[in-house]
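FW: tagging you since you asked about this chain on Friday. Here's the raw sequence from the shared folder, copied in full. Didn't touch anything.
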Amino acid sequence: MTADNPRGAMFRVLVPDRHARVTNAELFFDLVFVFAITQLSHSLLHHLTPLGALQVTLLFLAVWWVWVYTTWVTNWLDPEQTPVRILLFLLMLGGLVLSTSIPKAFEERGPWFASAYAAMQVGRTAFWLLVTPKHRTPVRHNATRILAWLSFSALFWILGGLAEGETRLYFWIVALAIEYLSAAVRFWTPGLGFSSVEAWAVEGGHMAERCSLFIIIALGEGIVVQGATFAELSWTHENTAAFLSSLTGSIAIWWIYFHRGAEAGAEMITRSAESGRVARLAYTYLHMPIVAGIILAAVADELVLKHPGGHADSTTVLAAVGGPLLFLVGTILFKHAIRGFLQLSHGAGIVALAAVGWFGRDLSPLWLSIATTAIMIMVAVWETLSLRSKP
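HL: got it, structure written out here
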């Protein structure tokens, strides 16, 4: 397949002013992460304790990191090339092992989770280095830097997988800290120095579309939770109201992200002279709280649907308010990165959700859900009206 590229490389052939499309192989690869998101939300639902929340947060950060790193690499490499496509299929295998290990990652399947994660991160980067032509020195140096950092963090992943109890948690926190710090310090490596921002240029439209699709994956998990849970319940007025509130809340979240934000982000990063810097901030980092908020909102949907009456307990309040709140915090920062100003509607929504959270235990789970949904609708309508006159 290398004959398709006159330079004999596996890289995408980019055409000026033409958006590099997301390939079917990338969409197929994403199916593994539909399952991963389901595993994360179910794990959080069954471990609603401070320790459980910390563990699931760590697993979420790992899942997001392995997905977003793959997105960066497939922004440069062409999945239509057979070797790159095979790489994605192998990563799917690793992703399935990773995902199936999530519920018991801090129990007997820790070695499997750690091994799958380390193999995906190191193997993908080694492949990228291997197929990069020698004359593309900056790209080869980038791949070498990242491979060095990921190989270092892989040691802590494996050590954590072999350890037990709190020791595993500590090893994995160190491993994640290494990986997240490496990007922040631009992968500084002895002998090679820092990676330049110019060397990280991306095809902006492709990066924006990939992250938008991941938002759809996260929202899809919420819809599945709502439908599956409601199907098992008696269809009383209270349960039906909880179902409609949950679904409307998901629609409001979709509207807030996609109505103008996703399109504006794609346009901004496509025009940017520093697409790599925008992709790192707006899409690699600021999409994490957006996705995490949607997952937490899905957990809240199931809690409310199963127990809509009575007084909301602390965990229900935390999930029902924390999910939309985390989503809005991520979204307001994302839109600030692409628009240059803080969206007033989002700020008002954050304040309103905090107020509901303060009085949340005085409400039933159903009315708590209705209140948070009403706030999200308010944010969506306010933003839509405020941007109507803007190009």
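FW: The first helix runs from residue 24 to 46.
HL: agreed, and The chain has a mean pLDDT of 90.
FW: great, closing this out.
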